[in-house]
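yo, TTI2 protein is done. seq:
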Amino acid sequence: SRLGILIVRHLKRLERVILGYLEVSDGPEEEARLGILETLQCTIEHAWPRMPCRLPVLLKALLRLLWDVHTERGPTPEPVRAALLHRATQCLILLDRCSQGQVKVLLEGVHSSCGEQRVRECLRKVQESS
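structure:
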């Protein structure tokens, strides 16, 4: 947040860190994943002009996170799962806005073929965002 648009100088390295944290569950409270989703959201907000070129990698990581959170049957409490799904959805909405609707286009096929209700609900929120 302090760096603002200057974060673009560090995007390549930051992207690797974000992807690494999104891939691995860090226990029942998921503090690291929640924190990194907040970091991603802040990064998208400040470096939005550079996000469309990072869209394929970030979209894949966020969709994988949605799926993992839904399918993992560990000791993570339901409110934490809901917070992860909400923050990931918010990141997808921001990515869609800065990519001029490309996320919605890419998610059309995923939404129609996904049978899991909670994941479909997140994707629906992205599709309905303006």
